[in-house]
Structure formats: structure tokens, C-alpha cells
């Protein structure tokens, strides 16, 4: 017949093994997790909870070991407690690796978001450059057409200036001829003998 204390020790051992297996499974899930950061954080929280439960059960087992009447049973149980503590230390290292992995994943996601923002800004800058280039090309075409109009205007003004000079020369010659004719007529009427 089992004593209540022996039953308690067996239950503690079974629960320690159960929590140990659950922690191993959760750590494996963390290693396999490729999902969003929230899923990784949730797994990490579950691991912490299981570790708390595992520590509590190990402490209960240690307390039970100290309460044993027989020294041999006490030493066997204390040895089991030490083994469980050593295993828990190795799992704690895995937990810290999982936390480090979680932090690194979070940092990488932050970097990814920043890179995405930079790519978006680069695309916007590129679009602005394309629009500016198009505007400059349109202005250049307009300048070329205005340049052609200005050259045509310059040619017309030069032609007008030459025509004006020719007109002035013709007017001067016509005026000189008119004055010569008037002088000739006046001379013949006033001085017919000359």
C-alpha cells in the first residue's frame, strides 16, 4: 500500500515529465515558427508559463524529498531533484535562445518594414523624377518652337528694315527728282533766257 507522501512524489514526478515534454514541444514549435511575430511571442509566453509550472513542481519534489524519513529515499529524491534542475538549466538556455531568436526576428521584421518604406520613398522619388523629366522635355519642345518663331520674327524684322531703307532711298530720290523738276520749271518761267 502506497503512503500519501509516496503518491505525492509520484504525481510530482509525472507532472515534471509532462511539463518537460510540453516545454520541449513548445521549443520545437518556436524553432519551426515562420509566422508573424505575434505567434512567436505567444509561443514564448507559453514556454515561460510551463517553466514556472516545472519550477514549482521541482520545488514541491524537493520539499517532499526533505520530508522523507528514510535517508536513502531522501538522497534518491534529492538526486532526482538535482537531475531535474540540471535539465531545466539546459532548457532555460534553450528558452533564452528562443527569446533571442524572437528578438532577432522582431528586429529583422523592423528592418524589413524600414526597407519597405525606403523602397516606397524611392519609388515616389523616381516617379517625381519621371514627371519632372517629362515637364522639362515639354518645356524644351516649347522652347524650340518659340525659338523658331523668334528666328522667323528676326528675319521679318531684318527684311522690314531693309525694305524701310529702300523705301527711304526711293522717297529721297523721288523728292530730289520732284525738287529738280520744280526748279527746272521755275527757272524756265522766271529765267527763260538762261
Automatic annotation (TrEMBL):
GO molecular function: SNAP receptor activity
Keyword terms of this UniProt record: Coiled coil, Endoplasmic reticulum, ER-Golgi transport, Membrane, Transmembrane, Transmembrane helix, Transport
Membrane topology category: Single-pass type IV membrane protein
CDD domains: SNARE_SEC20 (cd15865)
Bilayer-crossing regions: 169-186
Major site of localization recorded for this protein: endoplasmic reticulum
A GO biological process held by the record: retrograde vesicle-mediated transport, Golgi to endoplasmic reticulum
Annotated localization: Endoplasmic reticulum membrane
Any one annotated GO CC term: SNARE complex
Domain Sec20 C-terminal, first and last residues per copy: 100-190
InterPro entries: Sec20, Sec20_C
Similarity field: Belongs to the SEC20 family.
Protein name: BCL2 interacting protein 1
